[in-house]
Model the fold of this input.
Amino acid sequence: MELEKEYDSICIYIHLDKLDSDLVKYKSTIHHLTLKTNKRLDIVIHCNEIIENLNDTTHLWKKWNEIEKLLSSFYVMTSQKTYQCGKILLDVNVIFDKWCDYEIFIEDTWDKLVVTDENDIEYIDNINNQRSILELPQIKYIYSEIPDSVITDEDSKFENKFVEQQTCFIETNDNEKECYPVVALGGTFDHLHNGHKILLTISAWIASKKVICGVSDDELLKNKKGAELLQSIYERCYNVQKFLHRVRRNLIYYIQPINDGYGPTIIDKNIQAIVGSLETLSGCHAGKIILNIDNN
Done:
């Protein structure tokens, strides 16, 4: 599949059987679409394992490590090209169809949709019929067959990177649980990038009721190198809220400006887990200690 021209927005609809399905075969297509997208590239994943277990939340919550690897794989596929072609601000989003809790193909639209499973063509045609009834523009789509991959040494290194390297860490008071009613995370979230999006998605994945996200306010960052280049606290909070709203709708999101490294973990005793990256792991551990003290 080769697109002849560039588009502002492109969506690729990927059909997976299981969370541990072969992803390497999508790499060349993802690379091509990254080069052809100017503003927003959405990777919408229809995973049978997720959809079949939407009512078995315990099964899904236990799969957060697999979700992290899947997210990392797709986000890195795009990053490999965005840095090469100078598109570091390209807005890339990985969204799980149905788990997101809204009909993305009704609510959203793109300049071009790429369908990778022939069986999904009828589904998109039915979606377009619904869009006609709702007086919405038709989704313009093309079908692109994804051939079975031939694993190269480079591809093996690519896969092994995500087996060996963990990007998300969860600090909790109850290691026996896989789901937590209230989950917290924090950070600067300047120019929301792929690493931020993985953390936010994992937070939404393991939460059952609410995600609290602390965003460092302008005063806290005033002495940070390059502070004058940072987005405003309003813009950063808005981008976090907007992304979470696209990823999963059936949770409460509380986006709060913070003026210290602990944020809401000091005042909210209902937080059961804190999600962080390797860079914020020490802060997450400190927050866990505070939660332990508050809950005793």
In short: The longest helix spans residues 64-82.
